[in-house]
Design a protein that fits this description.
By secondary structure, this protein is of the alpha+beta class. It has one domain: Transcriptional Coactivator Pc4, Chain A (Transcriptional Co-activator pc4, Chain A, Roll). The chain contains 2 helices and 9 strands. The strands form 2 sheets. The protein has a 5-stranded antiparallel beta sheet. The longest helix has 21 residues. The N terminus is likely disordered.
């Protein structure tokens, strides 16, 4: 049994003399955030060691691919032998993502294909938690999927 601990922080900060409210969700191995006042990069995704801010469209593509990959891993589990590892890639215009490992424990990689370009990864077991937390954040904020 896994225990999922999610810490939610509503941060009150001042940027350019304007009060800002930023929602940040952190768990073991991941961070997801949203700053509704940010014009260009309102979203944040990352791990304990790294993070990148995303545009709304990049965040929507991130969530779409994340769900697609985790759903695929769940569906393929019955097709694989216990000792078989698999790598699955998915890509949209702005983001490339990959899961690699066993259906019950796999890592996740991200490459941002647009403007800033970056690469990041999450360790094994983080992806399902990342889906759940991102979904809740999207629902609470009313962000289009």
């Amino acid at each position: 049994m896994y225990r999922i601990t999610v810490r939610t922080a509503i941060l009150g900060v001042t940027i350019n003399n304007q009060p800002q409210t930023i929602l940040l969700r952190k768990g073991q191995g991941y961070r997801v955030g949203w700053n509704p006042q940010a014009e260009e990069y309102p979203a944040l995704v990352g791990s304990d060691e790294w993070a990148i801010e995303l545009t709304k469209l990049e965040f929507q593509e991130f969530y779409y691919l994340l769900c697609q990959l985790t759903d695929t891993m769940n569906q393929i589990e019955t097709e694989l032998m216990d000792e078989e590892r698999i790598a699955i890639e998915a890509e949209r215009d702005l983001i490339w993502m990959e899961v690699e490992g066993y259906p019950h424990s796999y890592s996740l990689r991200l490459i941002l294909n647009s403007g800033r370009r970056c690469e990041g990864n999450w360790g094994e077991g983080v992806a399902p938690q990342l889906v759940a937390v991102t979904q809740r954040l999207i629902e609470e904020l009313g962000v289009d999927r």
